[in-house]
Specification:
The protein starts with 6 loop residues before the first strand and ends with a strand. Helix 18 crosses helix 23. Helix content is 41%, strand content 15%. By secondary structure, the chain is an alpha/beta fold. The strands form six sheets. An eight-stranded parallel β-sheet has the order 16-15-14-5-2-1-18-17. Strands 19, 20, 21, 22, 23, 24 and 25 form a seven-stranded antiparallel β-sheet that branches. A three-stranded antiparallel β-sheet has the order 6-13-12, with no helix packed on it.
């Protein structure tokens, strides 16, 4: 099996297609990248910027460069000695435009007798054999807008098939509609009445049943070609939690690819491990992100920051947000589960649905993979019974139905399997997409795969976790920024400095509320911290973020029912940041106060991620400072010409200083990636570097077997205490050269002040290493 030493993620779309990616390969090789990592490239909805809404899994998207583009990219990578990793989407297909999805079109036309009825996850009994399609508007008489045009049923610009023999001369569109295998309904009915499985709450993404052998084979025919023809070396699997049988799917994939390198986009809660029997090298790295981010938060700031924001404890908050999701946008999934409860269980239907919703809400991880992980369901049962004693007996009766292996050998039931598929949806929507926009004490911690209630991790604990990663998951990915992160790495590292000036921040926040009131005491800290992390940014980006984040929080305003008065005030506050001299001065002064420490954090965080155990990924463009916010902000065009020029200059120029131009970060990225790619023998182990002295808490380092990483942490506090003093680190005997600065260092006891005299991080290479 070929494996990478590093990857570089590219967002492939019509504006940056596979041909442009191929042309970028020489730069990526010069940067030190080992494998090119591509976002989904199968044919997706027209204009899709992300590619997760695949409409034809049997072909590379023409708008993304088509088969010729993939061939060109693969050829360029091979010529540079690089591999290719591709993101694929097995869980769902895009159905927003039925005419562009032949599988969905056939299903709508032929109904439950269609071959495609086995491919999509539809509960036919829930609507007398018709699929509910939630597209109608709120106006009266929407069905009167239907018309028959050229053998199709049209609703404004939407087109749907007509079953053979169901349209007659003189029929109205509404009459023809009544005879179809689908029912067009108001979009608001989806949350409680939809009868096909979606991706989370997205109506335009329909669940696919890849556990069916022919569905797997046909939906992966193009993927198989990539490996048969040697075009691709590895795969990233999107959202395995949505699959009925993730283990079986990964086993099938291993056979199809011949045992290629495979990663899973799996969110692990603190302390949770991947199932050991999965055919994968590990996760895509959100767990690593959560761990190392917390090295850069000051535990001394936790009390003051918690006192500043009037929010509930995080785990109490997420019980409410998850229950809101189970009762709201995912109500249709809960009711589908309730319909699967066998009648012989003797449970009241309403009580069963209520209890199922509570169990989903109390589920402590995204999902279990029975018979493994049965303890998570048991935990949920206990928690649900404590919270809802009125449902205690119903919950107890559901437990063996949701875990048919509870008493030993058992057999899968649809109820048990579907419950596992649903728990992850509730977690993702209730936590990532709601609570993360409400819990606002320090928003750098509100990241995918993280638990914001865990404020900091001390160096000893992080060493333990990195050593465990070296032992258990050396080929799993590590990451800092992705297309899904709520804030990019450099936005977060600046926000993390707030933990070092917590009381000062409380005063700034109070002044901001006086000068530019948002009138939502939980959302205001989130907005201002996010803008501070990204400052300076354009007015347009700030407004777009404020609107999206406030609607995701779902408190003062909502996606489906925006509060116009609140949003006017919100946008006025954003405008004040640009137009009101007092507000602008306050923000600018605070940013200046923490900016240098933020840059130092960014350098340390990046070097740590690039050299720690695991396979480091660099998200597109983040070799420069990147102060992006949530998508689509983090998918903006990247200026590669500027990066090429700086990389060239660094090869011949002087050591850059920490500053606005981001040259220092590109230096760290290029030197670390090149060393890791070209000298893999230096990265075969893990030993902690031990600091001593009055500022020892500000040092973190490790020896990977000849390459030693040493970084600065909590830099603002370090400057406040007057610097390093006589703090030292203990190095192995020998001579070392810093790959970042070129400085020569002797082994033994080394003063931190000397080690960090020109740069807040060091990457030492033992000169006599084999």
């Amino acid at each position: 099996m070929l494996t990478p030493t590093s990857t570089y993620r590219l967002q492939i779309r019509s504006e940056f297609d596979l041909q442009r990616a191929a042309a970028l390969v020489p730069y990526l090789h010069d940067l030190g990248v080992d494998w090119v990592y591509l976002s989904p490239i199968l044919t997706a909805e027209k204009g899709s910027g992300h590619g997760y809404d695949v409409t034809d899994p049997t072909a590379v998207d023409p708008d993304r460069g088509g088969p010729a583009g993939l061939a060109a990219l693969s050829e360029a990578a091979r010529a540079a000695g690089m591999g290719v990793l591709v993101d694929i989407v097995p869980n769902h297909m895009g159905i927003e435009t039925p005419t562009d999805n032949a599988w969905w079109w056939q299903l709508l036309k032929e109904g439950r007798t269609s071959r495609m009825a086995e491919a999509f996850d539809v509960d036919w009994e829930a609507n007398d054999g018709r699929i509910r399609v939630p597209v109608l508007g709120d106006g009266a008489g929407e069905l009167d807008q239907l018309s028959v045009v050229d053998g199709e049923l049209h609703y404004y610009d939407n087109r749907y098939p007509i079953a053979d023999g169901t349209a007659h001369p003189g029929d109205t569109g509404a009459e023809v509609h009544e005879r179809q295998h689908y029912e067009l309904v108001n979009w608001r009915r989806a949350d409680s009445e939809l009868n096909y499985r979606r991706f989370f709450g997205v109506n335009s993404l329909a669940g696919l049943r890849v556990e069916v052998p022919w569905v797997f084979q046909e939906s992966h025919s193009e993927v198989k070609r990539w490996f048969d023809e040697g075009l691709v070396d590895g795969l990233r699997i999107d959202h395995p939690d949505g699959l009925a049988d993730p283990k079986g799917y990964l086993d099938d994939l291993r056979s199809l690819t011949g045992g290629a390198y495979v990663l899973v986009e799996k969110i692990l809660e603190p302390g949770e491990k991947l199932p050991t029997d999965w055919a994968t090298e590990g996760t895509t790295g959100y767990d690593a992100l959560a761990d190392i981010d917390r090295l850069f938060t000051d535990p001394a700031g936790e009390y003051a920051l918690t006192a500043t924001v009037p929010v509930d404890p995080f785990h109490e908050m997420i019980h409410g947000t998850k229950r809101g999701i189970a009762d709201g946008i995912l109500r249709s999934e809960v009711l589908r589960l309730a319909r699967l409860v066998p009648t012989e269980a003797g449970l009241d239907a309403g009580a069963a649905a209520d209890a199922i919703a509570e169990l989903l809400t109390c589920f402590p991880v995204y999902r279990s993979y029975l018979p493994g992980g049965a303890e998570y369901l048991a935990d949920a049962v206990r928690d649900a019974q404590v919270r809802r004693p009125d449902l205690e007996d119903t919950i107890a009766a559901l437990h063996p139905l949701l875990n048919p292996f509870l008493e030993g050998d058992g057999e899968w039931t649809e109820l048990a399997q579907r419950f596992q598929q649903t728990s992850g949806m509730v977690m993702a929507k209730g936590v990532e997409d709601t609570a993360f926009y409400r819990y606002s004490r320090l928003v750098s911690l509100n990241e995918v795969g993280a638990d914001p209630s865990i404020f900091a991790i001390d160096p000893l604990e992080l060493h333990r976790r990195l050593l465990e990663r070296q032992t258990d998951a050396p080929l799993a990915m590590t990451t800092l920024s992705t297309h899904d992160t709520k804030r990019s790495e450099d936005t977060r590292t600046r926000i993390s400095v707030i933990s070092e000036v917590a009381e000062e921040w409380a005063g700034v926040l109070a002044q901001l509320e006086d000068l530019a009131p948002i009138k939502d005491p939980t959302f205001a800290p989130l907005l201002w911290q996010s803008l501070i992390g990204a400052w300076p940014l354009t007015r347009e980006r700030a407004h777009a973020y404020a609107e999206k984040a406030s609607r995701e929080a779902d408190l003062s305003t909502h996606w489906t029912a925006p509060d116009e008065e609140f949003e006017r005030g919100l946008h006025a506050a954003v405008d004040a940041a640009f137009d009101d001299a007092s507000v602008s001065a306050l923000l600018t002064a605070f940013v200046e106060r923490i900016r240098q420490a933020g840059w130092s954090n960014s350098i340390g965080l990046k070097l740590l991620q690039l050299t720690m155990p695991g396979v480091p990924d660099v998200y597109q463009g983040t070799e420069f400072w990147d102060t992006s916010l949530v998508d689509p902000d983090n998918r903006r065009e990247v200026d590669y010409d500027a990066r090429r020029q700086v990389l060239t200059d660094l090869n011949f120029g002087a050591l850059p200083q920490l500053g606005e131009d981001a040259h220092a970060k590109l230096l760290v990225v290029s030197r670390a990636l090149k060393l890791r790619r070209d000298r893999p023998e230096l990265y075969t182990g893990y030993t902690a570097v031990v600091p001593s002295g009055e500022a020892a808490d500000h040092v973190f380092g490790f020896d990977r077997g000849g390459a030693i990483t040493i970084i600065t942490r909590l830099p603002h506090g370090l400057s406040q205490r007057g610097g390093w003093g006589e703090t030292t680190v203990e190095l192995p005997a020998g001579r070392f050269t810093c790959a970042l600065t070129g400085a020569s260092v002797s082994g033994g006891t080394v003063r931190a002040a000397d080690l960090f005299s020109t740069f807040p991080a060091a990457l030492l290479v033992q000169e006599d290493a084999a």
